[in-house]
């Protein structure tokens, strides 16, 4: 029995190969996280131009978070022996009519990202790729946190309002959410 067990184990020395369909979807997600990082950095630059220093700091730190989401996927692909492929990125929007519109766009974008993650998770299950399914649970939880965070910002904007001092207060509150 021991000999058979050793022989079987030796067959598992190689790197676990991912299916092409999963590699393609993970690469799509890398592109999306990379785009998210640029989108929030461009939005931070817009906020700076509007003298909204709190929102600018928060969006810049969130751009860093998105970059780390991209890197985490990249590492996973490398660990499985698959190859990350970078595609051409479209230019993110640079103008917003108001802070409310900017955060509405953030929410819209994050809901789209959640759908992409859900599709990826669903595909892993149907392809019986349980390791990638497990890896992606971090992203499932992260999307829940992000949607909650951005909805709370939109709620503050609605409650406080953005006229006069309201805008100053909102910007200060958003600035407190930046990663220190
Ligand atoms: Fe990487 Fe905002 O999701």
Question: How would you explain this protein's 3D organization?
Answer:
The chain is mainly alpha-helical and 180 residues long. Helices cover 76% and strands 0% of the residues. It has six helices and no strands. α2 runs antiparallel to α3 and α2 runs antiparallel to α4. It is elongated, with a radius of gyration of 20 Å. The N terminus is likely disordered. The structure holds MU-OXO-diiron (FEO). MU-OXO-diiron (FEO) binds next to α2, α3 and α4. The site of MU-OXO-diiron has 7 residues, from α2, α3 and α4.
Task: Please outline the helices and strands.
Blueprint: H1 2-10, H2 20-49, H3 53-79, H4 99-126, H5 130-160, H6 165-175
Residues 33, 36, 66, 69, 110, 113, 146 line the site of MU-OXO-diiron.
The main β sheet shows up as: none
Helicity range of the residues? over 70%
The end-to-end span amounts to: 56 Å
**Beta-strand percentage range:** under 5%
Number of distinct beta strands: 0
The overall average pLDDT, rounded, is: 91
Spans of 5+ residues with little confidence (pLDDT < 50)? 1-13
Q: Total number of helical segments? A: 6
Shape: elongated
What would you call the quaternary organization?
Answer: single chain
Helix/strand order = HHHHHH
Structural class: mainly alpha
Radius of gyration: 20 Å
The set of bound ligands, ions and cofactors reads: MU-OXO-diiron
